[in-house]
Design brief:
Number of strands: 28
Largest sheet: 6 strands, mixed
Structural class: alpha/beta
Shape: globular
Radius of gyration: 22 Å
Strand content: 25-35%
Length: 418
């Protein structure tokens, strides 16, 4: 049985641009689903695919990359016909009949089917002399600065990466200060109401947190805040987010908030519809979703599972499973956080449990629809939260009145299936 969202006839060849998780999973899915045509890969870092989350979560206790060949069992060299991991893409030229030509430093590579999987890059601020953390090389450089005894580290940004690095470095005996321009940690990801619940974690972990503290300048000796305060530092880490790695595309394809827009089949969307023979997956893409609207690609599950959907659509195979739910896992400052869904800024927040106790859950709702769930230090509820989104559409749960459930398990028992 073929799928109505089939992209095109089986491609004569496939070129995957990128060398990370999404690229590796795309190549593996092609072979798993029976594609036997030529597959080529162009990467930029010169390293075999590795897992990025451990770079921050295990900055100091894992001094070499977590190779995805070991974790996932995929041998990229065995699966692809050509692998060039130190040949970065510099430009893209669409072909009139479909597919594209990728420009590199030493020539051009043309394919009838090109998959963009170039991931993201850490945001840096021009003129700031500071480290970032997104690649294995970044992690090596930061570890080298922190080696040899206690150091003073200033982290700019109290988001996922900033909190993770602050926790592991403070636990190792370093003097850590985190400065955040917003009024609470994780405000961009969770909103200020929920983000505020994480504020006490910093002092408990031995980290100084300064919120509502915009940074004016960073130099080789520290950070200058907008209010004139000066924070000395042996090194400064700027952790203010990541952006899709799309600069190399120039104006070859239209972008949406800096990302490559794709449909439910991961086909790249042009001004008048899908561009034939051009797909994108992972951090570089933003996916059109019937459940959440537009889903940014910066979610680990999107890079892990999205390529399988892409390949099955490409080959005309059926996709029966519900779409992948946005997912984030973080270990920070002694706490485990698991996030599902994609809440909006004006969604209503309900906190289940005691945030000052041993664990709690936050739910975001829009009307009677649950748009997001954050589970903190409740391992038993992570599976329940995942099941909440394991269906098409947003789950519906009554959260008003005197019968508001006390925890997520009660909520799930009380909620009807959609």
């Amino acid at each position: 049985m073929t799928d109505p969202l089939r992209v095109l006839a089986p491609a004569a060849d496939v070129l995957v641009v990128g060398g990370g998780l999404a690229a590796l999973r795309t190549v593996a899915a092609l072979r798993e689903h029976g594609y036997d045509g030529p597959v080529r890969v162009l990467g930029a870092e010169g390293l075999a695919p590795y897992d990025r989350p451990p770079l921050s979560k295990h900055l100091l206790d894992r001094t070499s990359p977590t190779w995805l060949a070991d974790d996932l069992g995929h041998d990229l060299d065995a699966l692809a016909d050509e692998v060039h991991l130190a040949r970065p893409a510099r430009g893209l030229r669409l072909r009139p009949g479909g597919g594209a030509t990728v420009l590199t430093d030493d020539g051009e590579v043309t394919s009838s089917c090109v998959v963009l999987a170039t991931g993201a890059r850490a945001v840096s601020v021009p003129g700031w002399r500071a480290a970032t953390l997104h690649t294995a090389a970044d992690a090596d450089a930061l570890r080298a600065v922190l080696a040899g005894g206690p150091r003073r580290l200033v982290v700019v940004g109290a988001g996922w990466i900033g909190a993770e690095v602050a926790g592991v470095t403070a636990a190792a005996g370093h003097d850590v200060v985190v400065v955040e321009a917003r009024s609470t940690p994780l405000a961009a990801a969770l909103g200020e109401q929920v983000g505020a619940l994480t504020t006490p974690w910093y002092a408990a972990a031995g980290v100084e947190l300064r919120t509502s503290a915009p940074v004016a300048a960073v130099d080789g000796t520290g950070v200058g805040l907008a209010d004139g305060t000066r924070l000395s530092a042996d090194t400064v880490l700027v952790a203010v987010g990541a952006r899709p790695a799309t600069a190399w595309l120039a104006d070859a394809v239209p972008l949406r908030a800096g990302a490559v827009p794709v449909d439910e089949s991961y086909r790249v969307l042009g001004t008048s519809g899908p561009l034939p023979g051009l797909l994108a997956v992972g951090d570089v893409a933003v996916r059109r979703s019937a459940r959440h609207g537009w889903v940014p690609g910066g979610h680990w599950d999107e890079a892990l599972h999205g390529p399988d959907v892409l390949v099955r659509r490409l080959l005309g195979l059926t996709v029966d499973e519900p779409e992948t739910v946005p997912y984030v896992f973080s270990t920070q400052l002694g706490h485990d956080l698991t996030m599902f869904g994609l809440p909006a800024r004006d969604d209503v927040v309900t906190v289940l449990g005691d945030p000052t106790g041993s664990g709690w859950t936050a739910l975001w709702t829009r009307g009677d629809s649950v748009t997001g769930a954050l589970v903190v230090d409740r391992p038993r509820d992570v599976g329940a939260a995942r099941r909440l989104f394991a269906r098409d559409g947003l789950p519906h749960v009554a959260l008003r009145g005197p019968d508001v459930p006390e925890d997520l398990r009660t909520l799930l028992r009380a909620s009807p299936a959609t």
